[in-house]
Amino acid sequence: MAAITQNSFLSSNHLQLFKPNSKTKPIIAPTSVRMSLQETAPSIAVVGVTGAVGQEFLSVLSDRDFPYRSIKMLASKRSSGKQYTFQGHDYTVEELTEESFNGVDIALFSAGGSISKQFGPVAVNKGTIVVDNSSAFRMDENVPLVIPEVNPDAMKGIKVGTGKGALIANPNCSTIICLMAATPLHRRAKVLRMVVSTYQAASGAGAAAMEELELQTREVLDGKPPTCQIFKQQYAFNLFSHNAPVLENGYNEEEMKLVKETRKIWNDMNVKVTATCIRVPVMRAHAESINLQFVNSLDEHTARDILKNAPGVVVIDDRVSNHFPTPLEVSNKDDVAVGRIRRDMSQEGNNGLDIFVCGDQIRKGAALNAVQIAEMLL
Predict the structure, then answer these.
(1) What percentage of the chain reaches a pLDDT higher than 70?
(2) Is the overall model pTM greater than 0.85, yes or no?
(3) Entry's Gene3D superfamilies (predicted)?
(4) CA 307 to chain centre
(5) How far is CA 223 from CA 209, 226, 258, in A?
(6) I need a labelling partner for 282 at 20 to 30 A (CA). Which of 35, 99, 129, 193 fits?
(7) Can you tell me the distance from the alpha carbon of 81 to that of 97, in angstroms, rounded to the nearest whole number?
(8) How far, in Å, CA of 103 to CA of 44, rounded?
(9) Which of 14, 173, 186, 242 is labelled catalytic?
(10) Residue 293, helix vs strand vs coil
C-alpha cells in the first residue's frame, strides 16, 4: 500500500468504482472487484449510503465479494435521486420509507440513532434482519451486541431464509478496537480491571468532521482563524476531551459506552472498566492505550504469542526500532494492530499488562464489523 497522508484516506491501490454525479463524493472499492450478484443470494439494503460509513459498507461488500441478488441504496429525501455505478450496475439512491424493506433480507444501517429507532423495527416486522451501526439498540437486552471474532454465539439462531426479522447491534468503534485485542488475553487470564485511554480520529465524527480538520489545518497554517462548525473548539494542532455529552457521574457518553458494552459483550457485569476518551487531530483510525489487570498470571511473552495468533489482530511490537502501531499504518486496513506489549510494573508478578492498539474506525470499527455479522447470517 502506498503511504497514506493525513489529508487523504484513499490509498493508491483503490480506484473510483462508483460514478456519482457532481454533487456526490466518490465511493471507493478495490481494484480486485468481483461480481457478487447471485440469484440465490440474499437481497440487501444499505441505509445511509451517502455517509462515510455507508460508503465504506459498499467498499467492504466489494472487498469481501459479499453475495447478493439485489441491493438497495437508501438515504434521506435530500440525497434521493443520486446516481451510482456499483460493480458494473447503475443504481439510484432511494428515499428511505417504511416500504423500503419489502423483500429485503439484510439491511445495513448507518444513518444515526433516530433513524434506526424509527425504521429498524419497521424493517424487522417485514422479515428483514437489521445490522445497526448506531447506539440505538446496543444496550437492549433482547438485541445481540456482536463482534464476530469475540462473541459470535450471541447471534446464534439468527439466519437469513427463516422469514424472521431480527435486530443485531454493531458495538461502538472504540469498544470494537479495544476488545479485538483485549479479548484473547481475557480468555487466557480473565480481566479483572481494564483502564482505557482513547485517541480518536476525526473519522469517528463523520465525513464533515474530517473535512473540517483539513480545512482548519490549512486555515491555521495560513494564519487565519479556524472554522469551528462541527466542534466548538479548534481541532487542528490541538486535542480535547471527546465531544460526547458529559454525564452526571463525570464520564462522557463515549466513555460509558466502553464500560457498558464491554460488560455486555463479555457477559460479565463484574468486570471493572474505566475510560478517558480524547479527540486528536488525526484524519482516520483510532488509537487506544489499554492497561489490563488479570485474575490469573499472564507474562508479556505469552501475551504476545496469543495476540499473534488472534484473528483480526496483527502485532507491531519492535522495541529495537521503536516501531509500534500508528493510525496511518492501519488506515484502510481490516486488522487491529497491537504493540507496546509489556508487563505493568505497578502490579506484583505477571498479573498486569499494558498494550497500545490502533484500528481503522470506519473499517473494523464500523463497516467491516457489520458486514462480517452479515456474513454470519448466510
Answers:
(1) 90
(2) yes
(3) Dihydrodipicolinate Reductase, domain 2, NAD(P)-binding Rossmann-like Domain
(4) 20
(5) 21, 9, 38
(6) 193
(7) 14
(8) 9
(9) 173
(10) strand
Distance CA 278, CA 242 (A): 5
Please identify which of the residues 14, 186, 242, 286 carries the catalytic annotation: 286
> Could you give the CA distance from residue 96 to residue 111 in angstroms, rounded to a whole number?
10
DSSP state of 235: -
Q: Could you say which DSSP state residue 37 is in?
A: B
Q: Which phi and psi (to 5°) does residue 363 adopt?
A: -80, -95
Please check whether residue 289 is in contact with residue 273, taking contact to mean a CB–CB distance below 8 angstroms.
no
Torsion angle (degrees, nearest 10) of CA 174, 175, 176, 178: 80
pLDDT at 10: 34
Exposed, middle or buried, 203 (CB in 10 Å: 0-12/13-18/19+)? buried
**CA 237 to CA 288: how far, in whole Å?**
19
Q: Low-confidence residues of the chain, pLDDT below 70?
A: 1-37
Give yes or no: 173 in active site. yes
